[in-house]
TrEMBL record:
Residues 1-79 form the GST N-terminal domain. Keywords: Transferase. InterPro entries: Glutathione-S-Trfase_C-like, Glutathione-S-Trfase_C_sf, Glutathione_S-Trfase, Glutathione_S-Trfase_N, GST_C, Thioredoxin-like_sf. Belongs to the GST superfamily. This is Glutathione S-transferase. Pfam families: GST_C, GST_N. Gene3D superfamilies: 1.20.1050.10, Glutaredoxin. One of its GO terms (molecular function) is transferase activity. Residues 84-212 form the GST C-terminal domain. PROSITE patterns: GST_CTER, GST_NTER.
Length: 221
């Protein structure tokens, strides 16, 4: 099984799960700056020209949440509750909330402070963010109240929804997201950071990494 990745938030969700579950995958880093995501060969796998992409034999899959569900099904992990419909829709609810609301609210901050630096496209422009503040605070209030007394977003345990929602928000301090006033979100993100697979999901070298299962049973306690 191959996973194509770049050092960015969407592939991070998948690489964290690969490491957390100790999956024996060949993780291939694509050189995005050299145009590696836009070659005809790569776009034949992922027509979006984005990462991550999973290739498992003849099966090709893109979109980090779908890849993570696939990996959990394959590994028999309840981070995607394949056999529990009530839990499944709970996870889908938060994946959907992320893609339709939360990602759009944290994204502008993440772009100004993280993406621009990663791709060397200039300094952050804070004037772009003023208009995004009220929307982010409104959604953060929803998430913060949901996380009251909970360490995880769904099902009372770690699921792929946590990796999905945390992928940009985890950089809130660096990105100047106004999350300090939302203590349950801060507690949740700090808890995730104590998972070695989340804190450092990146394979050690450019390709052919098989991450160890050393923290498969890590807890957030
Ligand atoms: N919704 C997609 C997002 C994929 C995506 O936007 N990947 C970004 C990195 S976070 C990328 O490959 N960007 C490079 C580019 O667009 O050239 C997923 O969750 O997999």
């Amino acid at each position: 099984m191959k996973i194509y990745w770049i050092k960015a938030q969407a592939p991070r969700r998948v690489l964290a799960l690969v490491k957390y579950l100790g999956i024996d995958a060949e993780c291939i880093q694509v050189d995005a700056k050299a145009g590696g995501l836009k070659t005809a060969e790569y776009k034949a796998l992922n027509p979006n020209g984005k990462a991550p992409t999973l290739v498992d034999g003849d099966f090709v899959l893109w979109e980090s949440s779908a890849i993570n569900a696939y990996l959990c099904i394959k590994e028999g992990s309840d981070l995607w509750p394949a056999h529990n419909p009530a839990e499944q829709v709970e996870v889908i609810r938060w994946l959907s909330w992320n893609d339709n609301h939360w990602a759009g609210a944290v994204g502008p901050f993440y772009f100004e402070f993280v993406v621009k630096e990663t791709f060397n496209i200039g300094p952050p422009d804070r004037s772009e963010l003023a208009a995004a503040l009220p929307g982010l605070k409104q959604l953060a209030a929803v998430l913060d109240s949901h996380l009251e007394g909970c360490d995880f977003v769904a099902c009372g345990r770690l699921t792929i929804a946590d990796f999905q929602l945390a992928a940009m928000a985890c950089d809130w301090r660096r990105s100047e997201m106004p999350l300090a006033e939302f203590p349950n979100i801060v507690r949740w993100l700090d808890g995730l950071d104590r998972l070695p697979a989340w804190a450092d999901p990146w394979p050690a070298s450019k390709s052919n990494e098989a991450p160890a299962a050393h923290d498969r049973h890590a807890s957030l306690a």
